[in-house]
Specification:
heterodimer, A: alpha+beta, 15 helices, 15 strands, 16% strand, B: alpha/beta, Rossmann fold, 7 helices, 6 strands, globular, disordered N terminus
């Protein structure tokens, strides 16, 4: 078998089997003809033997007759009528031998010759009795001798034929023996080959079986992990066959019981059942694939959400089978519900934030505005001229505090406005923005005798008012945080950017514009750089520089909204550099 | 002040007593001899406007946030009537939210004044509104000129 395995043993087996079966067919045909021959030869031997016996019998008859005739002649008892050899009798003998005619023409000749000789013998014998003795006796004797010789020849011939056929018969018997042996041998070979082939097939089958078992086990595990179960409806037997995990989905032990279609349908939530049964029945009309969503209501009250997909197939018996998969999506449904709830919460939080924003921007500003109006009334009505110095001081403090509060609220509104997402980006020309800002800040600029230089800047994609806010805040800061007596010198530059690393992220000139705002103000210590952009975080500065702590937080937020970056480098008492990285428009990139 | 406007009928509708006071004082200080009628809410205003004996006013200062009938509702109602088509409506509000500006603009208000926090600015605003050539202003009205910056 090892030898066979080296080749494509299955093909080899098939070829060997084919040859064997062909040989055995050939041998059996041979054997059949050999047996037929044997039968024929046996028949011939019997025929020749019978003929021989007949001839010998005839010989003895003639011998007896001639002897009797001679005795009569010797005794001069001449009554030929009585002693004549009966021709009819002889013919009867010979006719028996004529049966051989079909197979041997020689016999016919010899029979005719014998007949002739018998006729001559009878004539000779009759003459012997009718004419003179001496002459006739010679003729008679010679006819007896001729007849005897002919019979003897005949017999010899028949015996030789018998011998020939005997020999042939022996050869044929040997051949038949060989054929029989070969048939038995080849049958044995066929049997062995079939056995080997069967074994091979069984081995293959076992291997396939193993694989199917393995796959079934895998599928079963997969069903458990993924939370689905498969099913099969045999429409002829009305059986609903379900996988192990399907049983688990129904809170049953695997293969605990058998189901009919109706029994499984009973598990469906009463509210869904009618629709599912209807769709199931309809699906049989057009044999189309179905996908259904429904719930199972288990006996203990648990509800399971299902997605069920079914399609039609024919099994090997030609019976219509509907197979399908049910997926338990209860968990998904729960999670989706949770998500929806969380989403709703977020929406309500957002709207609360919105109303909070409204409170700041409107309801809180309203009383503050009144306070400031009354302050301006008091100022304009010259009440203060008659007031004490303390009153005037207190009044100034009220005025400063309310002004500060207004700044704070304006900034807060700005900040919350930057939180609102979903604004549509448009093309924003930074040159235009900067010239607008310079116009807006013209009063302060002139007052402080400040110098602002601006490079040619790019057009970017962004929200106009936010970008404006960003640069207003940065330039206002630069104007604001300067030592008294120092003339502010502010430069807005478009720098060339190869690649910078910010927060471990590499920023390249292919993607970003790098714009710097440099001033000669009070600066800050670099260790505070990270705190600059945090909401309400203020650096320790002198009283006169009091800000709201929101300006740079707003800048950071705006830059974040535009997927950009902002960094700051400070030099105490010398100034600082703010760097803004803004995304290039796509066609520029 | 400008005597050509001395006979203008001016209406103010504001639910806030302090603001009504500031407005009156500002008018007094501006020494305009106009006839100022003051209403505390939208319903009162509309009742007055629809009254058959009412003389058609020239300018209406209208607050937005008011109880019962808001300024926006009044604005829409007034603009529905052809007889008020020449009435100048100046929105006079604490809010300067884009939504409010947009909505009052599209509903036919003529100018938007954010209530100032300084009395002198209030005077400046009133003076400005009273001295506008409305025919000219309305023809060239757009969202930029609609909002009065002080």
């Amino acid at each position: 078998m090892k030898f066979l395995k080296k080749f494509n043993h299955l093909t080899m087996l098939k070829i060997a089997l084919g040859i064997s079966i062909f040989s055995i067919g050939y041998l059996i045909t041979m054997f059949y003809f050999q047996m037929d021959d044997l039968k024929e030869y046996k028949h011939r031997i019997v025929m020749y033997n019978t003929a021989n016996v007949n001839i010998l019998h005839l010989e003895s008859e003639i011998e007896r007759d001639s002897y009797f005739a001679q005795t009569q002649v010797l005794n001069f008892n001449l009554s030929p009528q009585k002693t004549n050899l009966d021709v009819n009798y002889i013919n009867t003998f010979l006719e028996k031998n004529n049966l051989l005619n079909d197979i041997d023409a020689e016999v016919l000749d010899r029979n005719a010759r014998i007949k002739e000789l018998v006729h001559e013998y009878n004539n000779a014998k009759n003459q012997l009795f009718t004419n003179s003795h001496t002459n006739r006796a010679g003729v008679f004797n010679s006819s007896v001798i001729a007849l005897n010789r002919s019979i003897s020849n005949y017999s010899t011939y028949l015996e030789s034929q018998i011998r020939i056929y005997n020999d042939n018969y022996d050869i044929r018997i040997d051949n038949a023996k060989t054929s029989g042996f070969l048939i038995a041998l080849i049958s044995l070979v066929i049997f062995i080959l079939s056995y080997v082939k069967m074994n091979e097939d069984l081995y293959e089958l076992r291997k396939i079986n193993d694989e199917i078992l393995f796959m079934n086990e895998t599928l079963s595990n997969a069903e458990m992990v993924a939370g689905f179960g498969s099913w099969k409806i045999n429409t002829v037997q009305n059986k609903f066959i379900i996988s192990d995990n399907f049983y688990r989905m129904l809170n049953l032990e695997p293969r605990e019981r058998e189901f009919t279609v109706e029994e499984v349908m009973n598990y469906i939530h009463p509210e869904d059942r009618e629709a599912v049964v209807k769709l199931h029945k309809e699906s049989f009309l057009n044999k189309e694939t179905t996908t259904l969503w429904y719930r199972y209501l288990l006996p203990d009250g648990v509800i399971r959400h299902m997605v069920s997909t079914g399609k039609f197939l024919n099994n090997s018996k030609g019976e219509l089978v509907k197979i399908g998969v049910n997926q338990d999506i209860s968990e998904l449904m729960t999670k989706t519900k949770e998500l929806e709830e969380n989403n709703a919460k977020l929406v309500s939080i957002n709207s609360e934030l919105e109303s909070f924003n409204n409170i700041i921007s409107h309801d809180l500003q309203e009383p503050l505005r009144k306070i400031q109006m009354f302050i301006s009334r008091i100022e304009s009505k010259e009440f203060l001229e008659s007031a004490s110095e303390t009153t005037v001081t207190y009044f100034e403090k009220i005025k400063a505090a309310s002004a500060r509060m207004q700044n704070l609220m304006t900034d807060l509104v700005e900040y919350t406005r930057t939180l609102k997402a979903g604004r549509v980006f448009e093309e924003v020309d930074l040159n235009f923005i900067l010239s607008e800002i310079q116009e807006e800040l013209a009063f302060t600029t002139e007052e402080k005798n400040a110098k602002i230089t601006v490079d040619q800047l790019p057009i970017i994609s962004g929200t106009r008012f936010q970008i404006q806010q960003l640069f207003i805040n940065l330039i206002s800061n630069a104007l604001k945080y300067v030592k008294i007596g120092v003339e502010p010198n502010i430069a807005v530059k478009l720098e060339t950017l190869d690649s910078d690393v910010i927060n471990d992220k590499t920023i390249t000139g292919a993607e970003y514009h790098k714009i710097t705002i440099t001033d000669n103000g009070i600066g800050f210590e670099q260790k505070y750089a990270d705190q600059l952009f945090i909401l309400f975080k203020r650096l320790p500065t002198e009283e006169i520089y009091k800000g709201t702590g929101l300006g740079l937080a707003i800048c950071k937020k705006i830059v974040d909204n535009h997927k950009g970056f902002i960094t700051a480098v400070g030099f105490p008492n010398k100034g600082c550099v703010f760097t803004v990285y803004l995304l290039k428009k796509e066609k520029d990139a | 002040m400008d005597t050509t406007h001395s006979q203008m009928n001016i209406l103010l509708c504001d639910d806030d007593a302090d603001d009504r006071l500031f407005f009156k004082e500002a008018m007094t200080e501006l020494k305009v001899q106009n006839d100022l009628k003051v209403f505390e809410n939208g319903s009162e205003l509309m009742d007055y406007l629809h009254h058959p004996d009412t003389l058609l006013p020239h300018i209406l200062f209208l607050d937005i946030n008011m109880p019962c009938k808001s300024g926006l509702e009044c604005l829409k109602e007034i603009r529905e009537h052809a007889k008020f088509k020449n009435l100048v409506i100046a929105i006079y509000s604490t809010s300067n939210s884009e939504e409010d500006i947009e909505e009052t603009f599209t509903n036919g208000a003529n100018i938007f004044i954010k209530k100032p926090s300084d009395f002198s600015l209030l005077k400046k605003a009133i003076h400005h509104v009273l001295n506008i050539n409305w025919q000219y202003h309305t023809d060239g009205l757009n969202k930029e000129t609609f909002f009065l910056s002080l």
